Amino acid sequence: MSAKDYRFDGSHSVSLKDMPTGADDAKACKAELVQKTQENIARAAALQEKLYAAGQEGLIIALQARDAAGKDSLIKKVFSGLNPAALEVHSFKAPSSTELSHDYLWRIHQALPPRGKIALFNRSHYEDVLAVRVHHLERGYRLAPRCLTEDFFDRRFRQLRHWEEYLYENGLRMVKVFLNVSREEQRKRFLDRMELDEKHWKLSTSDMKERALWEEYDRAYEDSINQTATPECPWYVLPADNKWYTRYLMSEILVDTLEEMNPQYPPLDSAEAAKLPQVMAELEQEP
């Protein structure tokens, strides 16, 4: 299967229980796909160089996932091969009191990359229709009653669609990725964090509370994807139980998106071009 098989652009709906979480038949091609991943990263780096030089479009990759789905390792293994000067990584934790005093996109807007760069969002603006919804955090927001009506999240979905459309029309593309880890694989990874000293730093007992809300998060993820997937700003629901396969698919998405953007090196300024013969002659005459 290719990354396109996991793509949702609004033409059809996702049901997470019907989506694979593992590599399945692709396991037979593991060595080939691991090699292809490295080739894709090299290809993406070449395209990123053109994107940076052109400075006409920017790319945002928003990563969403349950705990232990592998977001950090995905960033490390796939994106470390890119030029760090043209790459930004932003992690969005629980909002601060200052951030909560603004609209929920305020902190996200400040992290938008300039045209020419790629930004990775480790969690994103979608936390405000995921964790906020599952835990009913909106009930504690200091908002006017007219803002806290029953259609609160439906309005947020509309706002997100329109905001992403606005970004697209102003030179910023967004690709949204959900890492679909199975409940059993998450359990194994949690046990690893408890048993292995080198993984203790990742351990949080609060993760177990989130795990107990698995079905509620399923509904929240499905609604978020189905309500905000568009051809310009699609979602990808990637199986996350086999990290090598997730990395391969992510590298495919990165290359496909950059190729669709088709960045080109900008032409030499005509005034600079006119000076080149003289400059070259001077350099050649140097002892």
What does this structure look like?
By secondary structure, this protein is α/β, with parallel strands linked by helices. The protein has a single domain (3-285), classed as P-loop containing nucleotide triphosphate hydrolases (Rossmann fold, 3-Layer(aba) Sandwich). It is 46% helix and 12% strand. A 6-stranded mixed β-sheet has the order 1-6-5-2-4-3, sandwiched between helices. It is globular and about 75 Å long.
Main traits of this protein?
single chain, 287 residues, alpha/beta, Rossmann fold, six-stranded mixed beta sheet, 11 helices
List the helices and strands and how they pair.
Layout: E1 7-8, H1 30-54, E2 58-65, H2 71-79, E3 87-91, H3 97-100, H4 106-109, E4 118-122, H5 131-134, H6 152-169, E5 172-180, H7 183-195, H8 206-211, H9 214-228, E6 235-239, H10 243-261, H11 270-285
Parallel strand pairs: 2-4, 2-5, 3-4, 5-6
Antiparallel strand pairs: 1-6
Helix pairs in contact: 1-10, 2-10
Brief sketch in words of this structure:
It is built from 11 helices and 6 strands. With 287 residues, the protein is α/β, with parallel strands linked by helices. The longest helix is centred in the N-terminal third of the chain and has 25 residues, at 30-54.
* Assigned CATH class: Alpha Beta
Number of helices: 11
- N-to-C SSE string, H for helix and E for strand: EHEHEHHEHHEHHHEHH
Question: Nearest-angstrom radius of gyration?
Answer: 22 Å
Count up the domains: 1
User: Within the largest sheet, what's the order of strands?
Assistant: 1-6-5-2-4-3
Distance between the termini: 60 Å
Output the structural class. Answer: alpha/beta
CATH fold naming: Rossmann fold
Within CATH, the superfamily carries the name: P-loop containing nucleotide triphosphate hydrolases
Helical content band: 40-55%
Q: Looking at the structure, what is the overall shape?
A: globular
What does the largest sheet look like? 6 strands, mixed
Q: Outline the low-pLDDT stretches.
A: none
How much is the average pLDDT?
95
User: Number of DSSP strands?
Assistant: 6
